[in-house]
Amino acid sequence: MDKLINDFSFGLFFWQVIILVVLLLLLAKFAWKPIMSSITEREEGIRNAIASAEAARKEMQNLQADNERILQEARLERDALLKDAREMKDKIVADAKHEAQLQGDRMIEQAKTAIEGEKNAAMAELKNQVSSLSLEIAEKLLKNELSNKEAQVKLVDQMLGDVTLN
């Protein structure tokens, strides 16, 4: 260390300081501004990238929230459509049952009416046959009873007696 201090040369020191100052001036004039501008641009680019990344993150959060909202709305709409479809199905089934019940009741009523009509027709036919048979029997009896004169007079007297009593 003593050797360095003993070998100190003021001229050499002076020229080294001048070279250093000239070098610093040249650097300041030609290199410092481009270096600083590139560092500033780089800082600005990094800030922009961070801001873009933050904006993209927020946009992604918004998109995810929108997707969740849209999915929730779609689920609600699907549930509403399924509910409407079930209600419509139940209504159609109930209407079909009601219509079938009405048609069944109509068919039963028509069958009852047809049976009643046929019953009445059969009764009328039976009455006609009974009255025909009764007339034939009465005719045969009257022929037998009215075959002689004495039986005719007796029958007329009996009928007159019945008429006055009623």
Can you tell me about this structure?
By secondary structure, the chain is mainly α. It has one domain (19-161). It contains three helices and no strands. The radius of gyration is 65 Å and the shape is rod-shaped. The protein starts with a helix and ends with a helix.
Q: How much is the average pLDDT?
A: 87
- The number of helical runs is 3
What is the helical fraction, as a range of percent?
Answer: over 70%
User: How many angstroms does the end-to-end distance come to?
Assistant: 178 Å
Roughly what fraction of the amino acids lie in strands?
under 5%
Structural class by SSE content: mainly alpha
> What's the alpha carbon Rg, rounded to whole Å?
65 Å
Number of domains: 1
Shape designation: rod-shaped
Quick take:
By secondary structure, this protein is mainly α. The protein is 95% helix and 0% strand. The chain has one domain (19-161).
Give short descriptive properties of this protein.
single chain, 3 helices, transmembrane helix, 166 residues, CF(0), ATP_synthase_B_chain, coiled coil
SSE layout:
Layout lengths: L1 H5 L3 H136 L3 H17 L1
